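User: Before I run my own analysis I want an independent prediction to cross-check against. Here's the chain; please return only the structure tokens and, at the end, one sentence I can use as a sanity check.
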Amino acid sequence: MHRPRAEALVDLAAVQHNVGVLRSVAPGAALMAVVKADGYGHGAVPVARAALAAGASWLGVCTVDEALGLRAAGLTAPILSWLNLPDDDFAAAIAADVDLSVASVVHLTAVLAGARQAGRLVTFGVVAVSAETGYGYIRPNRKVTLEKQGMLKGHPVSRFVEKPNAAKAAQYSTDP
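Assistant: Structure tokens:
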């Protein structure tokens, strides 16, 4: 009889406990549980479920395939996939509501092509849902449209305010 030389036993209650500790240290903050590399070899789906049950609000993975595996398992929480290649299947990722990081213009062009293929609109940047003083606020100039290489379209910035005070952040988070 052949026995494995090493065996990893994952205590999902410990995962939940650890997420709970993080939640208690930063109440109200969004918490991402990184479950890349098959949950670091412990099973991405069970670790993700345990983390979400304990209060994680996001899941993080490296690849589109990892993100699609979580979606195939029925997980609906927001997922960020951040180490992708320009030839990855971005149409499938976008259709599955996977957030993607972009590292270059070539990469951005591939993501936009995937969005067109999926028939989806892609947005970039942070959308303020509450007043924040830790990042800047961008107001697009919707009267002018940029085009680059015939593929990239967007709006130039009409105003940018870097890390405003609390009163200004509250105003900007409610401005249309």
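Sanity check: The chain has seven helices and eight strands.
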